[in-house]
Amino acid sequence: MGKKWRWGVILDAGSSGTRLHVYRWKDPQKALKYASAEDLRSLPKLTTEKKWTKKIRPGVSTFGDRVGDVGPYLQQLIDHALRVVPRDQVQDTPIFLMATAGMRLLPQVQQTALTREICSYLRRNTQFSLPDCDLHIQVIKGETEGLYGWIAANYLLGGFDHPEHHQHGKGHHTYGFLDMGGASAQIAFAPNATEAQKHANDLKLLRLRTLDGSPAEYKVFTATWLGFGVNQARERYVKSLEEQYAESEAEVPDPCLPKGLRTTLRGDPVGDGTQDAPTLFGTGQFDECLQLTYPLLGKDQPCEDQPCLLNGQHVPAIDFDVNHFIGVSEYWHTTHGVFGGKHDKAYDFATYQQRVQDFCGQDWAQIQRNLDGTKEGDAKNAQEACFKASWLINVLHEGIGVPRIGIEDLPTANVSRGALEHAKEKGFIDPFQPVDKIDGIEVSWTLGKMVLYAAGQIPPQSLDDRYPVGFGSNTGGTPHDFQFAGSSWKPINHHGNQTSDDDQDWDFDAEDILDRAKSKPTTGLFAFILILLLFLYFFRKRDRRMRLYSRVNSVLRRPRRPGSGGGARSKGSGPRGLSGLAAKLFGGRPSGPAYERVMEEGEADRFELGGGGESDDATTVYSETMYSDSSDLSRPSSLSSSRLGLSSGLLTPQIADHHHHLHLHHHHHPHAGRFDLASSPTVSSSALDRSGLAVRTESRERLALPSHLVAMGMGRRSRAGSPTRVKSPLASPLLDT
User: What residue spans carry the region label Disordered (predicted)?
Assistant: First the structure.
């Protein structure tokens, strides 16, 4: 059985903790089978759920001097992943652990020891796919992290699949990406055409592949600043305060702390008692806080390759007319945390700065009263919020140069009216917009990595297109430093069996139904109804399915004309109209008449169940199926004993008493392939009209005979408890022959 879904597991090993992400997407072969024209031009559709993620603390980097403990530390994440990924697909599911800034700060020896131990542990204790330790378990560069984030942002916003909805002017349709964690910060964007040509050697060549196998190339600039994350920046800031005040005072005034708050240099709150080490005393002066954090940007560092942004790092000029950035992680938390603004569609500098000043000007005691009853950790966030806000404002506006919306005039973007309205709905027409989730999916660089991996599983459209999916230097062909996606476009091979088309035919679910109905509005209703009926057929229990069939059949079947009879059907005849179709679909009985025969006492020994089976139920239900075209008519005998009657729930009875069987002459009709009962002198015309149901009619008429006629041998009395039927005056009884 071919597998419908592909799965991927990735561990984001950050500086403060490790987070598990699990993603799922359709196998390309199956996705192609039902893909719309729009799907074919799109990247694979990845999905995830909040319950598939899990974060643990501390970070992997804390195990640098005790490498042997890192495996058991990760086991709880592995156990969680195994609860998500189906057991029979674990071996085909790749697992990645990619460490970021926290690990980058460790000596190379410790980095190598940790990655080797992690790979060895995962291979010993899991069955996830891990063919290459260097590719799957690694400390990634900041530039790589930024590029993955850029992929994730544009993937979720639709910049790849629907460029017509994201025209920012000058032929530009992608978004820039800003990320800030605890230890580092990243930027990634596609420069405008002029800057891209001028700084071609500074760009990364990114190759993706859409579902139809077409290549998609992008040229992106990405850079990182190690030590520019909020935690590392805070450490540098406190160190500068220490140097400024030296040891002249026991308390060091800190304008970035709320007024009246006292903490250690590490940020732990202290009481009113004396401390051996210097303490920080909050003054709540946010304007001064901005001034003291500005030097940390490193704007005074020499720039060897103009232009530069932070710390002398070269970055091509940013055209904010077309380069619209989204910011994640701390950009989101610092603008939407304790300062509110959770429902803001766009970032407004003037509004945000006013909120920060109002909050940071409060006494710490007042802030604490407002925090009563909130969840654990909010007090820590409130304590650090003012420094983080000052750092974010300086990085955004003084470092990167994002225009101050609400204060500074912005250039008029050359955007079409339709694209502008669409962007307004998303809130992404401004130079900067902090985000956390887009369409319910977290914007994380891990998603970008998995999108790249999933795109690598799609076979190329042309055999001549052998360029792999991945990224590297902006040169022709396959660059020497090209980093492959790590995936293959060969189909999954389960126990040596390739995925077959038969496995795919009915391998769809409710998500497919909705997707297909949405993608084709003109025929969506008809397709939805048809697929839903098939879905109900294959997945409803048999008893419920039969009840549904009965209701449908009672409405759809055509009433028989009085006196028309059943007759032998012509060649090729079958269940008529929609009723017949429903019978085929739901497994019901054919549209012909069905009769019930209640066996009398003494008759049970005339039949024996095939295979020696026994049953206390003396009621056998017969249908016209015993005389259907599918019956075995090749035998020369009048009736095969094993084919005389069919029962529901019982094994097929066989005739045991040869003294009382009916002599039915078997004639093969050249058209209908039916038994011709017309030659039997004992069969009345009314019986003939029932298409060969003489046996059952005979049985009914026997049950209607009065007791004195039964005593004469013309019939048998029904057993106690069995209802007798009143004889119809229009039907003549069948006599024993």
Answer: 557-595, 625-645, 661-683, 715-737
